[in-house]
Amino acid sequence: MRYLPKSAAERQQMLAALGLHEIEDLFAAIPEAFRLREPLNLPGPLSEFEIIEYFRARAAENARGYTRFLGAGVYDHLTSVVADALIQRGEFLTSYTPYQAEISQGTLQAIFEFQTLMCQLTAQQVANASMYDGSTATAEAALMAERVTGRHRVVVARSVHPEYRQVTATYARNHGLAIAEIPFSAETGQVDRDAARAALDTETAALIVQSPNFFGVLEPVPQLAELAHAHGALLVVAIAEGLSLGIVRPPAEADIVALEAQSFGIPPSFGGPSVGVLATREEFVRQMPGRLAGQTTDREGRRGFVLTLATREQHIRREKATSNICTNQALYALAATIFLCQAGKQGLRELALQNLAKARFAREQLESVAGVRCRFRGPVFNEFVIELPRATRWVNRALLAERIIGPLPLGPFYPELTKHALVCVTEKTPRAEIERLADALRRILAQPA
Prior knowledge:
Elements lengths: L7 H11 L29 H13 L6 E2 L12 H6 L3 H4 L11 H18 L3 E2 L6 H16 L3 E5 L4 H12 L4 E5 L10 H7 L6 E5 L10 H10 L3 E6 L16 E5 L15 E5 L10 E7 L5 E8 L19 H38 L5 E2 L8 E5 L4 H9 L3 E2 L2 E2 L10 E5 L6 H16 L3
Parallel strand pairs: 1-13, 3-4, 3-5, 5-6, 6-7
Antiparallel strand pairs: 2-8, 7-8, 9-10, 11-12, 12-15, 14-15
């Protein structure tokens, strides 16, 4: 036990101070069968050179040279080396919630700028910087709609990301919030508006949709807003693919926008962490979860930044709190801010146009493969659904052998869409790799069953 004092006298002194007699007393809480009786079999000690070589060897074991066509809420977009460098500065990397404005001006300004960019992108008046990800932002939007309207029922489209719906159901379960799901059109992949009209009533707090939805199809937000508002309900629009806002009309008619900002320069990182955002109208600001940073001036007229609103129980009385969500997303919010400022309006539009053009090219290439067809005819951004003549898992196993990570099988989420898969391309997907996917599918599907 190398971490204990070396001399017997020192050990006894330490034990006496703890009110113990034997060293074994320190481990009394650990069952006998699980106590370590011999030193761990660990290599080392290693020199700095040996440690670097060890990690180089581990890095070489990672899968390289694969092309991926996975999206479904986590996207492989360009990232910024500038952002990587800046967020590692000590004043950002080690900072916590900026309670003391006088020593947190940099952090508060970064949050304020992030909020401003999110408002500009979503065409909303207020945005926060405190959601975990798009799924929790959607769930919080449902609870917020309940508080705003005083109603206790929400209608959710089945074309919303399945995991977003699962998280929302988990949040709603102990809040007494009822959830009704409505189907999607088998032709367009959009929300079935007749079903939505039938599901909405005077007890509905919100209609929740996603655009682009889980199938990559854009929803008619203005018409859906009109439908929800006719019943006194709010419209909540979830956006999993934030980069679509570089070209797609923002959901200005929505009452609440639940956004996943991972597409703005945040690496996929095996699925997280992400950057959740909730944006809304100014009239609903008191019902927002999380926190808001605001701009003000001091007595000498100098610009300053403060924590304007913090509606969680750590800041106010628990019965008045809107949420207990309390993560500090400032570091990745800063990375997204740097990325967006680097790209600018034109750069963001160019990235979005590349996604749109490559998705169109990919659809054309895949539809040229015998037995493959695009399922929905609604407008898409960078994802779309294909129907295959064979089981998607079998096809993906064959693609993996050709160093292609294939599209997402939809059967586990939608039983009626067995043999369907969700294809995603981004600005990082080369044209040649899209052609290689089509050629590989052509060979694979030509094989006997």
